Amino acid sequence: MYQLNKTSLYTVIGLCYGLAGLAQAQSTPQTTLPDAAPDAILIENVRIFNGSSEQLSPSSHVLVVGNLIKSISKTPIAAPPGAKLTRIDGGGRTLMPLIDNHTHMMMNSISQLAVMTSDIGYVNLAAGAAASKMLMRGYTSVRDLGGPVFGLKKGIDSGMVIGPRIWPSGAMVSQTGGHGDFRLPTELPSAPGVFSYTERIGAAMIADDAASVQKRVREQFFAHILSASVHHRCVPAWCVTICSGMSSLAVNVCCAR
Fold first, then answer.
1. Which of 154, 180, 223, 237 is the most exposed place for a label (fewest CB within 10 A)?
2. Do the domain assignments include residue 230?
3. Rounded CA gap, 189 and 147, in Å?
4. Are residues 80 and 202 in the same domain?
5. pLDDT tens across 202-234, in order?
6. Does residue 111 share a domain with residue 86?
7. What span, in angstroms and rounded, lies between the C-alpha atoms of 174 and 234?
8. How far apart are alpha carbons 230 and 165 in whole angstroms?
9. Distance (Å, whole) CA 16 – CA 135
10. Domain ranges, residue 197
11. What is the per-residue burial (b if ≥16 Cβ within 10 Å, else e) of 154-170?
């Protein structure tokens, strides 16, 4: 069993509160051993910030079984029969939900240059280590808005890697010179049918016409994306952006799904 110190465990599990509903919508089931008793965490004597009310709750108790919050009560909660229970006294502290709504899990742990020039195996290992640290900081879920994150998501969902739940967007679909064009100067000019390294690893896809935009977006759905974002503008001002007509095509593909 993965060991956490009391403070980290309190923080990480407590932050699940506002995301309990989302946990049930997770696309890949958690892997559990059929004969193993479920792990349970009982957090007692905490005040809960639920993300919508301006007021903290009165002193409350939260029971987490497996990866789902089973009960929230102002009165003491009995331990579930047969569960491996960890009991935490919150000491009147605050529990609150945290979700990172815009991140790039595969690109945040090392430099962008390292992502573009390193072996993808090294990038995956760095991202796995960073995912564990992000969970320990209290982020139980993230919306990943671009990058080859499907393998990391699968590893986390299956219990192979410790990290937050990931709603992936897949490769960044970009026009030449746009927000997601990460090619190095040595990779220019482009040649028909030749993909750059960042395209080959699924970090980005170049699409310069309507048909290409539709195809690349559909490919991301084929890879089971759960989130999407369309960029119309970016900084600095000289950065080329996708035209409104092609971005509308991308949105239409998303809506059709």
1. 237
2. yes
3. 23
4. no
5. 999 998 888 888 888 888 877 765 555 555 444
6. no
7. 12
8. 22
9. 11
10. 100-256
11. ebbbeeebbbbbbbbbb
